[in-house]
Amino acid sequence: DGGLGGGAGGAGGEGGSSSAGGGTGGAGGSSGGGTGGGQSDGGRDAGLQGDGGIVYVVVIVKENHTFDNLFTGFPGASTSTTAKLSNGTTITRPFAPDGGIFCDVSHSNTSGNTFWDKGKMDGFDKVKPSQPDGGACFALQSFMRYREEDIPNYWAYARNFVLADNFFSTTMGPTWPGHFSTIAAQAPMYGNPTCTNCDEGGQGCLAPAAASIPTFNDQTCTTSTAFPCFEVPVVTDLLPAKYSWRAYGPGTAAKMFSPYNYIRHVALDAGVRAAHLKPLTTLDADLTGQPLANVTYIHVESGPGGISEHPPLHPCRGENYVVRIINKLMARPEWQQMAIIVTYDDFGGFYDHVPPPTADVCANGRIFNTGFRLPATLISPFARTGFVLHDKTEQASIPLFIEQVFSLPTLHSRYARARDDRAGSLMGAFNFAQPRRPPLLLQERPNCPR
Predict the structure, then answer these.
(1) What is the C-alpha end-to-end distance of the chain, expressed in Å?
(2) Phi, psi dihedrals of residue 3, rounded to the nearest 5°
(3) Is 17:33 a contact under the CB 8 Å cutoff?
(4) Distance CA 52, CA 225 (A)
(5) What are the structural domain ranges in the chain?
(6) C or N: which end of the chain has fewer Cβ atoms within 10 Å?
(7) Strand 56-62 to strand 338-344: parallel, antiparallel, or no bridges (unpaired)?
(8) Residue 386's CB: how many other CB atoms inside 10 A?
(9) From CA 119, how far away is CA 113, in angstroms rounded?
(10) Phi first, then psi: what are they for 298, rounded to 5°?
(11) pLDDT at 6 (0 to 100)
């Protein structure tokens, strides 16, 4: 009954890289040496079934950062220390302020299209930071970059395991389309829900009747609005009964913010909710005292103590939260058969120098699929060591990975709009023939900025 085992398709040679950026197809290169990197065939038949393979997949989804925002200068990855403004001038991107930031930047689909500017990537200064929170906005917030010393544990995971530098959001923002894509390999919406005079949040099918969400048809490029509740398949629907799954999100069991709330056959079935949807407040205890599900989603859309990393929050507290989760996972016996993916829901209004792939740009020039690059770190006993994965992937690659691990059919075979048939595989991050990697237990950092 084991999951994916030995013999993953060969990734490119250690230490290999090519010129950075280039075209609209994604990142292909390097900003420095010292880390392995390459591309793999990443096919669906990349491994063999066996008891020694991956049988536990944990997906952690945080909030609002691009690859260049968190990992500029990472060895072997395609990054840029400069950026072009809308007036044609080039600036050196500033470092993030030591004391944190006080504002947010719009990360809507409309703002994303403005930033993208039909692939010129020069519109990031056209939308100004807003929502001041006790201090003045940092004028160049969209362009800022964190240093390794700002987020040392995220860099430690990347240096010791695998960092994907060609991983894109499946949709061009914002929050809920991104979270939704990690479970459904697509998103019928291109915005967040709204509801006048009510606290809708991420309640989806449980929202008040007045709630609505902007939707789009990716075949006709037409937009509309709908109640935020959809009957579409998600990857956990495909799991045989012998495999378990669980999804965590902020809030309470009765009012939990989760992309599963947008799935009618999950959200409106009290038995399914009770069995599979859990509030984040139970996660620490569950990781210590409960059996681990074969597939676990941890959607940190918000939460106590600034753990989501959504601006204006500094990443430090969110990084500590991820370290605490991963330390607990690595301490479990299931670590020997585990893969952990840490990624983000959307770009958060932050700059990235790599244009998204443009195969799905609408005739009117607007882009819904895909969005900007996001950080994605893959952590496992089977993960390559200090490897930068250049294969073009996206949030829909996460359901694809689960399908590959558990030998499942694709979501696309059940629903034509699902993108797991063309999302790109994450399997190149793994080497099932290598000795299993030991845990990397890290220390949470004290005295985080605000």
Answers:
(1) 46
(2) -90, -150
(3) yes
(4) 47
(5) 36-429
(6) N
(7) parallel
(8) 19
(9) 9
(10) -125, 100
(11) 41
Give the list of residues 6+ apart from residue 356 with CB closer than 8 angstroms, or none. 24, 26, 116, 168, 172, 367, 370, 371, 372, 373
Type of residue found at 425:
S
- How far is the C-alpha of 10 from the C-alpha of 426, rounded, in Å? 12
What residue type is 348 in one-letter code?
G
Per-residue pLDDT, 352: 98
What is the distance of C-alpha 126 from the center of its chain? 25
SS3 per residue for the chain: CCCECCCCCCCCCCCCCECCCCCCCCCCECCCCCCEEECCCCCCCCCCECCCCECEEEEEEECCCCHHHHHCCCCCCCCCCEEECCCCCEEECCECCCCCCCCECCCCHHHHHHHHCCCCCCCCCCCCCECCCCCCCCCCHHHCECCCCCCHHHHHHHHHCEEECCEECCCCCCHHHHHHHHHHCCCCECCCCECCCCCCCCCHHHCCCCCEEEEEECCCCEEEEECCCECCCCHHHHCCCCCCEEEEECECCCCECCHHHHEHHHHCCHHHHHHHEEEHHHHHHHHHHCCCCCEEEEECCCCHHHCCCCCCCCHHHHHHHHHHHHHHHHCCHHHHHEEEEEEECCCCCCCCCCCCCCCCCCCCCCCCCCCCECCEEEECCCECCCEEECCCEECCHHHHHHHHHCCCCCCCCCCCCCCCCCCCCCHHHECCCCCCCCCCCCCCCCCCCC
**Whether 144 contacts 94, CB under 8 Å:** yes
Q: For residues 246 and 276, is the Cβ–Cβ distance under 8 A?
A: yes
- For the CA atoms of the chain, what is the radius of gyration? 20
Q: Cβ atoms within 10 A of the Cβ of 331, count?
A: 13
Find where tokens 């997906």 sit.
Answer: 59
Task: Please give the pLDDT value at position 132.
Answer: 64
Cis peptide bond prior to 215, omega within 30° of 0: no
CA–CA gap between residue 390 and residue 22 (Å, rounded) = 13
The series of mean pLDDT values per 10 residues for the chain, 450 residues long, is 43 33 36 53 41 90 96 98 98 88 87 94 92 74 95 98 98 92 95 67 82 87 92 98 96 83 95 94 94 97 82 91 98 98 96 91 88 98 98 98 98 96 97 96 91
The number of beta carbons lying within 10 Å of the beta carbon of residue 311 is 26
pLDDT recorded at residue 221: 86
Identify the burial level of 226 via C-beta atoms within 10 angstroms of its C-beta, where 0-12 means exposed, 13-18 middle and 19 or more buried: middle
CATH code for the part of the protein at 36-429: 3.40.720.10
d(CA 301, CA 309): 9
